[in-house]
Amino acid sequence: MISYLHGKLVSIQDEAIIVDVQGIGYEIICPNPYVFQDSFNKDFHIHTYYHVREDAHILYGFKNDEQKYLFTRLLSVSGIGPKGALAILAGVNIPEFVAAVEREDDKFLTSFPGVGKKTARQIILDLKGKLTSTFSISTDETEKSPAAIVQSEELQEAIEALKALGYMEREVKAVLPQLRKSIEADMNTDEIIRKALSLLMKK
């Protein structure tokens, strides 16, 4: 198992980064590679998960141990593979996610790409009670969290509208964590789009 790598970040791609470790370039698939932009051409440390299957050996990378641990727990959910787990992690606020699992909030969970009602129920079934020992959640904060309340279809509609406007998926992914935090409970799709556009203009 390759637990982490320390080297120079030499390339950032849509789905991966390349880290030079003593002359060897490691390709590492990440939930959102562009979060590492500040480390470009610098020495940095990345947490990794080494995934082995019959036809490939793949390294996945994460900013911290919390992301990595959630990734491994998501892989334990029936029906979720690495690609699905990465899609969730690309826009996740971990305390909100854990709180949603604990309160069985399938509306919140279905706001993630590729997560339908059946998968959301499976996440709850497989992970409820298994994350709170590792991740701390604030009941008061999560109950009031706008991102946990907003209709998932409205957020999804906003994401699709941004793509229709010409924004690349990687650009949308880059602002998704901030967007989730800034959403208010009574926001409609148009208001979410405007909020997203203001975040995208700052990039």
TrEMBL record:
Transmembrane segments: none
Predominant localisation class: cytoplasm
A GO molecular function held by the record: hydrolase activity
Keyword hit for Hydrolase: yes
Keywords: Cytoplasm, DNA damage, DNA recombination, DNA repair, DNA-binding, Hydrolase
Domain Helix-hairpin-helix DNA-binding motif class: 72-91, 107-126
SUPFAM superfamilies referenced in this protein's UniProt entry, alphabetically: DNA helicase RuvA subunit, C-terminal domain (SSF46929), Nucleic acid-binding proteins (SSF50249), RuvA domain 2-like (SSF47781)
Pfam families reported in the protein's UniProt record: HHH_5, RuvA_C, RuvA_N
InterPro entries hit by this protein: DNA_helicase_Holl-junc_RuvA_I, Hlx-hairpin-Hlx_DNA-bd_motif, NA-bd_OB-fold, RuvA, RuvA_2-like, RuvA_C, RuvA_C_sf
Subcellular location: Cytoplasm
Signal peptide: none
Keyword rRNA-binding set for record: no
Region Domain III, annotated ranges: 150-203
Domain notes for this protein: Has three domains with a flexible linker between the domains II and III and assumes an 'L' shape. Domain III is highly mobile and contacts RuvB.
Entry similarity comment: Belongs to the RuvA family.
Function, as annotated: The RuvA-RuvB-RuvC complex processes Holliday junction (HJ) DNA during genetic recombination and DNA repair, while the RuvA-RuvB complex plays an important role in the rescue of blocked DNA replication forks via replication fork reversal (RFR). RuvA specifically binds to HJ cruciform DNA, conferring on it an open structure. The RuvB hexamer acts as an ATP-dependent pump, pulling dsDNA into and through the RuvAB complex. HJ branch migration allows RuvC to scan DNA until it finds its consensus sequence, where it cleaves and resolves the cruciform DNA.
HAMAP family, A to Z: DNA_HJ_migration_RuvA
Subunit structure: Homotetramer. Forms an RuvA(8)-RuvB(12)-Holliday junction (HJ) complex. HJ DNA is sandwiched between 2 RuvA tetramers; dsDNA enters through RuvA and exits via RuvB. An RuvB hexamer assembles on each DNA strand where it exits the tetramer. Each RuvB hexamer is contacted by two RuvA subunits (via domain III) on 2 adjacent RuvB subunits; this complex drives branch migration. In the full resolvosome a probable DNA-RuvA(4)-RuvB(12)-RuvC(2) complex forms which resolves the HJ.
NCBIfam families: ruvA (TIGR00084)
Identification of the protein by name: Holliday junction branch migration complex subunit RuvA
Organism in which the protein naturally occurs: Ornithinibacillus xuwenensis
